[in-house]
Specification:
- This is Acyl-CoA thioester hydrolase.
- Residues 9-121 form the HotDog ACOT-type domain.
- Keywords: Hydrolase.
- One of its GO terms (molecular function) is long-chain fatty acyl-CoA hydrolase activity.
- The structure is a single chain.
- The chain has helices spanning 8-11, 32-51, 135-161, and strands spanning 5-7, 13-18, 54-60, 74-84, 88-98, 105-118, 129-131.
- It has one domain (5-161): Hotdog Thioesterase (Thiol Ester Dehydrase, Chain A).
- By secondary structure, the protein is an alpha+beta fold.
- The protein has a five-stranded antiparallel sheet. A two-stranded parallel sheet has the order 1-7.
């Protein structure tokens, strides 16, 4: 692992997308693929801000769409780094739908993505150590670690039932 450090706060990223007809299905709701695309971009930016390197997607964990994003609503993606390996960065991405007329906001999905940092030659390269210097950052990190573990356990349970 690198001797450098970076904080969870330095990785925080928020991006928004206005849901327009090209990204909707025939019911006027966001296409799942469009939402996954936005999540991937937001997560990659968080990973790059953290590592100061180009990062590529290695994996995306299980995704459940729990609420639709309707035509004309704003999709709000929020991401931050919550764990690191030697060359990999784990990022939590939350998505909310926001009604721009009422400011009402609801959660639509979240997932955990892993990115790998690359050097200028396209080879894997070490990432900084993660620091959480404030209680708020440590709480976010711990929340993400626990939520990922719970999600993985749930997926395994569903596979066992099948």
């Amino acid at each position: 692992m690198s001797e450098q450090t970076s904080t969870l706060a330095e990785s925080r990223t928020e991006m928004t997308e206005l849901l327009l007809p090209n990204d909707t299905n025939n019911l006027g709701r966001a296409l799942g693929g469009a939402v996954l695309h936005w999540m991937d971009i937001c997560g990659a930016i968080a990973a790059m801000r953290f590592s100061n390197r180009q990062c590529v997607t290695a994996s995306m964990d299980h995704v459940d769409f729990i609420s639709a994003i309707d035509l004309g609503e704003v999709a709000v993606m929020e991401a931050y780094v919550f764990n690191v390996g030697r060359t990999s960065v784990d990022v939590k991405v939350d998505v909310h739908a926001e009604n721009p007329k009422t400011d009402e906001r609801r959660k639509t999905t979240s997932s955990f993505l892993t990115f790998v940092a690359l050097d200028d030659d396209g080879e894997t390269t070490p990432v900084p150590r993660l620091e959480c210097p404030t209680p708020e950052e440590e709480a976010l990190r711990q929340e993400a670690v626990e939520a990922r573990a719970a999600q993985l356990e749930s997926v395994i349970d569903r596979m066992d039932e099948a």
